[in-house]
Amino acid sequence: MLNLIRRNTPDIADKFTLELTGKISGKSYYEVSALDGRVHIKGDCKISQAMGYYAYLKKYCRVNYAHCGNTVLNVTEAPLPESTVMHIIDQEKRAYLNYCTLSYSMRSWGWQEWEKEIDFMAMNGINMPLSVVGNEATVYYTLRDFGISEEKALSFIAGPSYYAWQMMTNLDSFMHIPDTRYIENCLDLGRKIISRQVELGMTPIQQGFAGHVPEFIKEIFPDSQLQHLPTWCGFPGTCQFDPLDKSFALFGRALLEKQKELFGAYHYYACDPFHENEPPTDGGVYLHNVGKTISKMYTDFDKDAVWVMQGWSLREEIVKAVDRDKLLILDLDGSKSELHKGFWGYSFICGTLHNFGDRNSLHGSIDLLAENQYAVKKEKYPSIVGTGLFMEGFFQNPLYYDLAFHTIVQDKKIALDEWLEDYAQRRYGSDEQCLKNAVKLLHDSCYNPKCIGRETSSIVAARPSTTHYHTAPNDHVELRYDNKVLFSALTELLKAEKATTDGYRFDVCDILRQALSNRAKEVYFAITESFCRHDKEAFEDNCSLFEKILLAMDRILATRDELSFDTHIGEAMANACCDEHKDLFRQNEVTLITIWGPYVNNELFDYAWKEWAGLIKDYYLPRWQMFFNELRASFGEDISHISDTPFHHNERNDYETTDFQQKLRDFEYSFTYSYKGTPRKSEDTVAVARELVDTFKDII
Asked: What kind of fold does domain 93-408 have according to CATH?
């Protein structure tokens, strides 16, 4: 633990003493006090001590440690606690990460980023992270052990932006990296991650086996029952062993043994049979036998094995075939425990999902977070054993996630108004009233109780159409708050005279981005309305305003590295094993954020949209300009032929049915193949924000 303190606050590392004790009434706890002129932290384990350390930093050093701004703890003094503070943690298990998070937020990470993240997990009480980085090596070397060639084994493994969905059995092979050095890099990183997690007392959740195999596995198991799955979201269908086929347990056991050899074995194994697909055989008897077979595979390998299953892909017959002490269910969004009667008495973790695709839309009900769903569900379901955060990405909504991390170790309702005032001071480094007002206005706007579930769509990132349905699957078209209130939060922030933190600068940028984006949606509807009434002057004025807003957004976002597409492309290319493969990493990055994939029958386009500098100016704006030109060429005519299609996927128009959509497709494909980023212009965030607020205040 002292090493964690040295890594994060080296200037005050010698001001702490640590004491390791037993649990209190069987529960974890931490205690912070002053002892012999130092800050004394007691706890039953290293994670508890790390929580005590961070609780001290928040209370006495007034810090906010976040993924968005305030990414470094700048602490140089350690005031002694005035009294003893003790916190008992009711939740035994605190889980973290969704498979998707690994690709949406962590796809370009190296050890430097992971080391910080693991410390961040510990300080926030996480003790069961999903730990599957390096699984590429497990699969690769298992295939090689069975005699598969290097080339074939590499070809099965999807590229860094897509491997999360291979682990979920949705796809394979897409944008693969044909280099064994890439596999070795994945292995090295995964080993470091698990080693540090175990050192801090975490219990990693490792990858299990649900049957997904390459089609060429028939070379090894010619008599096996291989199920060819239908296409997933336009991707070619994958293959899997029938769990009742003897080849399933044979190959699955080999994978588990290889994983243990490479990383160790820590008793929790995640897999979801028939995830987003259907079983090959109907009936409860078959599913019951599947549950028995998979559970036996784990316990034969590891007598202490616990199968970890996602709540939204489970089947009752499979669940009930497993002994209760051998299954842990992750209720990712907290909703399935009600649907499945508390999961029939099986141990489960109540989770918060919040975000799809790491889309940077400000949204979320902090009132629902403050209600504390763990406490609510514990009254009904005694089999609940903990809480978790399962967001698809975390590089957005810093206020929401600060509260979410706080809540996962609480067993009571949060006093929200009090928490918000405390957050404002920690986030911005000042107790000015305008900052408290700003946070209150954020609560009244983008974080109000109506902003539950799906994030708000972006018209900026939407594929241009005469009718706006959804920007991406699972988003919410309607704005569930008054944009003027959000803009008022920004103007309150800009009144501050003492706020100097990086979190302050991030929020000024991000709130302005959102307010401009919301206004752009109103302008879009004005464009289509003026077109339909044949008012060419109004049409041109609105098109001009729309473009002006998007360029303003691009400019303010360019003041932040993490909100610039060029930064992320550079990070992706830096992971290449050699210059020859830099373009493969670049294309992984650009494709995921834009068309998502695949290149034909695309259903997931813009799923991971981002309002980022460069991406707006070089990708989204040109698409809209193409659309405006198409409307100009059809002025006074029926425009349904431009983009409306008779069939829809994910509540959106088909991808390439009309002539105009095919033009968009050609532009988008060219972008993924050729775009290498554009250097951003370095300007001061707050100065640019003040200028743009003055420009757009009357418009908003």
From this structure: TIM Barrel (3.20.20)
Nearest Cα to Cα of residue 457 among 473, 474, 476: 476
Residue with tokens 């109780």: 449
The pLDDT tens digits of the residues spanning 598-636 come to: 988 899 999 999 999 999 999 999 999 999 999 999 887
Question: Nearest Cα to 459, choosing from 356, 397, 546?
Answer: 546
Domain 436-696 CATH class label: mainly alpha
| Residue whose pair of structure tokens reads 């291979």 in the numeric block | 166
**CB contact set of 680 (below 8 Å; sequence gap of 6+):** 558, 564, 566, 567, 613, 614
Asked if the domains 2-89 and 436-696 are classified in one and the same CATH topology, the answer is: no
User: Residue 467, Cβ neighbours under 10 Å: how many?
Assistant: 10
Domain 2-89, CATH number (from 3.40.190.150, 3.40.250.10, 3.30.379.10, 3.40.640.10): 3.30.379.10
- Who's near 574: CB < 8 A, 6+ residues apart? 108
pLDDT-derived band at 468 (thresholds 50, 70, 90) equals confident
Task: Write out the H or E segment, with its range, that includes residue 28.
Answer: strand 28-35
- Angstrom distances, CA of residue 465 to CA of 280, 455, 461, 519, 665: 39, 20, 12, 18, 13
**Which pair of structure tokens corresponds to residue 160?**
């860094």
Residues in the chain: 700
Cβ atoms of residues 609 and 687 within 8 Å: no
Which of 142, 164, 197, 194 has the alpha carbon at shortest distance from 357? 164
| CB-CB contact of 464 with 627 (8 Å) | yes
Would you list the domain boundaries of the chain? 2-89, 93-408, 436-696
3-state secondary structure of 389: strand
**What would the two tokens of residue 397 be?**
């909504």
